[in-house]
Amino acid sequence: MIAVLFFGAFVAFLNNTLLNVALPVIMVEFQVNPAQVQWLTTGYMLVSGILIPASAFFIQRFTNRSLFLTAMTLFTIGTLTAALAPSFLILVAARMIQAAGSAMMMPLLMNIMLVAFPIEKRGTAMGYLGLVMITAPAIGPTLSGWIVEQYSWRVLFWMVLPFAVLVILVAFFKLRNIMDTRDVRLDILSLILSSFGFGGLLYGFSMAGDKGWMDPQVYLTIIVGAVSLTAFIRRQLSMPVPMLEFRIYKFPMFALSSAIAVVLAIAMFSGMLLTPIYVQNVRGISPFHSGLLMLPGAVIMGIMSPITGRLFDKYGPRLLAISGLLITTVTTFMLSRLELDSGYFYIMAVYTIRMFGMSMVNMPIMTNGLNQLPMQMNPHGTAMNNTLQQVSGAIGSAFLMTVMNKRAEAEAATLAEDAMKQAAGNMSPAEVAAMKAQVAQEALLHGVNFSYFVCAVIVVIALVLTFFVKRVVPPKEKKEAMKAAGGNPVKAGKPEHTPQPE
């Protein structure tokens, strides 16, 4: 049953990043501009941002079998529609249908893992889930780069379709219900406020890197998102049965794990954004080889995820997280010292080691935080974690892109002024053009390096927070420890509902 769920999730997550490399080809075929073609990724992200916060309601209200089959069916319908899309608008709609199915996968899987495995084995189980969650989106750009060079972009969807159909067929016969349902009601106003809140923030910050912060489309959507999100939180705190439970932040280890996960999401998304910019625009390396450079990091992160899960079960989260964040901090600083001629394999090695460091932090910290929540709050915990990762990734990427652009503009002005003084007007038009290209390249390098330096400072914040992490003791271990100490064991059922940190 777990294998079926994992394979379905792998197919859905792979499609998240599969289309990115194909966007230029799609622009030519449908004759759309960059702002329009961006809706293939922005629309996907917006639907995810709207549905993930609502996932806590769906997981409590419907059986895990019906939810998984519905999600995979929606994803499959979207995939088939995209493969046959005769127009760009239909292709955008198809991507949104895909997102409606894919958005439910991660919260649903995490909840099933929390129910299916005892607390002392959750680290290993969540580690295997991390393998799927990390590897699938990471291999997408490399795989799609090769396919787009050899075949039509439609092959990206035709390739996924038979696997999605196979998952539905196997799940129909093999998947069973292991999660309890509750007769909860969906608050429509909460859903509307959540959609405008998270959707507005995701859209606004995602578009900031391209359009700039002063564009009305950017700052107005951010303002609408912030106001709606504030109203949404206030409403949830006043409701006896909220759509998304914010009181889970009363649990200290969950709150701490959320803060660390937010910083880590910023670091991860920024690396996936800044590294291709440097490799392609500064070093002049092709998109396919740029994706290939990042592939070993994704593979290492995927391989390490189950291993770190086992280590978490044995040693707890603190040692793993401190070691991983030290590695991440050092390698991020190394990426802030890149040169115009930094070697391809050097960049690959540093990026891969950086991903290795991150693999030691993400799932152990997240699992430790979820372990402290009462069982009935798990859907809210997983929904909150997944929503925060999406929002913080978008905000962090937009912020670091702005930092990069501003620094590059300042450096370009300084470098151009120095170059013109040295030339003293004795340059031919060809030499002037070459000088401008050189200045732009050096300015962008300075921008990337400074942005990575800011990212390293942000990672240090997570490193400091990690020293306050405590392992949440499994209930059975806590009873045995109390008996060994001669104390009274905790009443049956008590730790199951409110496990406490040691």
From TrEMBL:
<protein>
    <submittedName>
        <fullName>DHA2 family efflux MFS transporter permease subunit</fullName>
    </submittedName>
</protein>
<keyword id="KW-0813">Transport</keyword>
<feature type="transmembrane region" description="Helical">
    <location>
        <begin position="153"/>
        <end position="172"/>
    </location>
</feature>
<dbReference type="InterPro" id="IPR004638">
    <property type="entry name" value="EmrB-like"/>
</dbReference>
<dbReference type="InterPro" id="IPR020846">
    <property type="entry name" value="MFS_dom"/>
</dbReference>
<feature type="transmembrane region" description="Helical">
    <location>
        <begin position="450"/>
        <end position="469"/>
    </location>
</feature>
<dbReference type="InterPro" id="IPR036259">
    <property type="entry name" value="MFS_trans_sf"/>
</dbReference>
<feature type="transmembrane region" description="Helical">
    <location>
        <begin position="254"/>
        <end position="279"/>
    </location>
</feature>
<feature type="region of interest" description="Disordered">
    <location>
        <begin position="478"/>
        <end position="502"/>
    </location>
</feature>
<feature type="transmembrane region" description="Helical">
    <location>
        <begin position="99"/>
        <end position="119"/>
    </location>
</feature>
<keyword id="KW-0812">Transmembrane</keyword>
<feature type="transmembrane region" description="Helical">
    <location>
        <begin position="319"/>
        <end position="338"/>
    </location>
</feature>
<feature type="transmembrane region" description="Helical">
    <location>
        <begin position="344"/>
        <end position="366"/>
    </location>
</feature>
<feature type="domain" description="Major facilitator superfamily (MFS) profile">
    <location>
        <begin position="1"/>
        <end position="474"/>
    </location>
</feature>
<feature type="transmembrane region" description="Helical">
    <location>
        <begin position="38"/>
        <end position="59"/>
    </location>
</feature>
<feature type="compositionally biased region" description="Basic and acidic residues">
    <location>
        <begin position="493"/>
        <end position="502"/>
    </location>
</feature>
<dbReference type="Pfam" id="PF07690">
    <property type="entry name" value="MFS_1"/>
</dbReference>
<feature type="transmembrane region" description="Helical">
    <location>
        <begin position="126"/>
        <end position="147"/>
    </location>
</feature>
<feature type="transmembrane region" description="Helical">
    <location>
        <begin position="217"/>
        <end position="233"/>
    </location>
</feature>
<keyword id="KW-1003">Cell membrane</keyword>
<keyword id="KW-0472">Membrane</keyword>
<feature type="transmembrane region" description="Helical">
    <location>
        <begin position="184"/>
        <end position="205"/>
    </location>
</feature>
<feature type="transmembrane region" description="Helical">
    <location>
        <begin position="291"/>
        <end position="312"/>
    </location>
</feature>
<keyword id="KW-1133">Transmembrane helix</keyword>
<dbReference type="InterPro" id="IPR011701">
    <property type="entry name" value="MFS"/>
</dbReference>
<comment type="similarity">
    <text>Belongs to the major facilitator superfamily. EmrB family.</text>
</comment>
<feature type="transmembrane region" description="Helical">
    <location>
        <begin position="66"/>
        <end position="93"/>
    </location>
</feature>
